[in-house]
Specification:
Blueprint lengths: L3 H12 L10 H6 L4 E3 L5 E3 L2 H10 L12 E6 L5 E5 L1 H11 L10 E5 L3 H7 L4 E6 L2
Parallel strand pairs: 3-6
Antiparallel strand pairs: 1-2, 4-5
Length: about 140
């Protein structure tokens, strides 16, 4: 008989079927004619070229090879009222959109208040995605 934890993990996996199998770099997506990724459920997600160019404008030279797209906004069972972003370049992008970026305080992971999600999703609707995490 499956435990409650097994059932929860299975449900989380089902809810996350919209996540990509592989997150390509920004450069890889800019260099192809039709920027898209294959999702875990077998379908495809398409990116707006204008968004990819906007992301490029937020980065320093060479960072296009390090930024993985889509940027994952993690909703966790531990951090109520917050969401998490991981990756130095990913955090930098989110901080720049929110107007909180400082070059002296670059982080590889950051928690943000959940009420900021609509601003990020409105700015980057095709290049961000949610992931639901049970911790």
């Amino acid at each position: 008989m499956p435990t409650a934890e097994d059932i929860l993990n299975r449900e989380i996996a089902r809810v996350n079927l919209h996540l990509p199998v592989v997150r390509p770099t920004l450069r890889q997506l800019i260099d192809v004619e039709e920027p898209k990724v294959r999702l875990r459920d077998g379908s495809y997600h398409y990116f707006r070229r204008s968004e990819l160019e906007y992301l490029r404008s937020l980065l320093d030279d060479g960072e296009e090879d390090k930024l993985r797209v889509p940027i994952v906004l993690e909703i966790s069972t531990i951090y109520r009222g917050y969401f998490r972003v991981r990756g130095r370049i990913e955090v930098k992008v989110i901080d720049k959109i929110l107007g909180t970026y400082t070059v002296l305080d670059e982080k590889s992971e950051e928690l943000y208040l959940r009420y900021l999600l609509p601003k990020i999703r409105k700015t980057l609707p095709t290049t961000t995605t949610y992931a639901f995490i049970a911790e």
